[in-house]
Write a structure and sequence with these properties.
Elements (H helix, E strand, L loop, with lengths): L1 H30 L1 H58 L3 H14 L2 E9 L8 E3 L12 E4 L2 E9 L4 E5 L7 E5 L5 E5 L7 E8 L9 E4 L11 E10 L5 E8 L8 E5 L5 H19 L1
Antiparallel strand pairs: 1-2, 1-12, 2-5, 3-4, 3-12, 4-5, 6-7, 6-9, 7-8, 8-11, 9-10, 10-11
Helix pairs in contact: 1-2, 2-3
Length: 287
């Protein structure tokens, strides 16, 4: 206490000076119209700037929710469009189409998730998402983003899952050329993460650069018609018996954040039949 009193006694004139300055400034701006208007304008400019910065910060942090909502909506629209296109090609009436859209959304419910880790420059890249067994996420479930196909769930833990993306050399997904009816298998060559190759396209197939590539529906993990990418180049296969199409992927894996896991109950009878065929072929190869 004594030290405080000594400090105030030693520097009291500075405190008196500050008080007089504050009083004079208040009197100056309060009783002089010109100075008052200058202060009012400057204060408004500063307040406006502060509010603008505050608004930008708030908007930035709200982008996460906006992105999640947009991704969710894009996934729903992709499922609806793929089913509507299939119904239009079949020539069914509008009432049946509406019922079919409802059915496809019921057949392929989805879970939203966020990518928490990703690799891009490896031969076998993986994505880690923040949903796992506790959220009913299981291996072999398909994964979509707001712009199209992402990959397949590979492994799961209680609260996380490892996704095998299209940019993994082990990825092998059945796709087709939209509107052409020709199929192939989408594989990655381990080079550029923006491209993959649609292989085993038959030699008699009719297509051109710019054609769109989508899921074929042959896999239980994805419905038919989910956008994959666009044909950018055409090559002959090594044996000359088929075509290889260079596809620019619709998903930018370098910016991927929000995804949806498609929950589809597999057709048990179909799975058993396929497993039986695979086991039979493996047995023949060993013999």
């Amino acid at each position: 206490m004594n030290n405080l009193l000594l400090f105030l006694q030693k520097y009291y004139y500075w405190f008196v000076f500050l008080i007089l300055e504050i009083v004079s400034i208040v009197l100056l701006f309060q009783f002089n119209s010109f100075q008052g208007s200058v202060y009012f304008t400057s204060a408004n400019v500063m307040s406006g700037y502060i509010y603008e910065v505050q608004s930008r910060i708030s908007s930035y942090f709200s982008l996460q929710q906006v992105n999640e909502e947009l991704t969710s909506r894009n996934v729903q629209l992709a499922l609806e469009i793929s089913n509507l296109r299939k119904q239009l090609e079949a020539g069914e009436d509008s009432t049946h189409r509406a019922v079919s859209v409802s059915n496809v959304l019921n057949d392929y419910p989805n879970i939203s998730a966020t990518v928490v880790n990703a690799t891009l420059n490896r031969t076998n890249n993986f994505l880690t998402i923040n949903k796992g067994n506790a959220d009913n996420v299981k291996p072999e479930m398909g994964v979509m983003g707001g712009n199209g196909l992402v990959g397949v769930v590979f492994k799961t833990t209680e609260h996380y899952a490892l996704v095998l993306p299209l940019i993994n050399t082990r990825s092998n997904i059945s796709c087709k050329i939209r509107g052409r009816g020709y199929y192939g298998y989408l594989r990655w060559d381990g080079k550029d993460s923006r491209y993959a190759m649609l292989e085993d396209v038959p030699r008699h197939a009719s297509f051109k650069k710019g054609d769109l590539v989508e899921t074929s529906g042959y896999s239980e993990m994805f419905p038919e018609g989910i956008f994959v990418g666009k044909v950018e180049a055409i090559y002959n296969s090594a044996d000359g018996l088929s075509f290889q199409l260079k596809v620019r992927l619709s998903t930018d894996f370098g910016r991927l954040r929000d995804v949806h896991i498609i929950q589809h109950t597999p057709d048990l009878e179909r799975r058993l039949l396929q497993d039986e065929v695979v086991k039979s072929e493996e047995k023949e190869e060993r013999s």
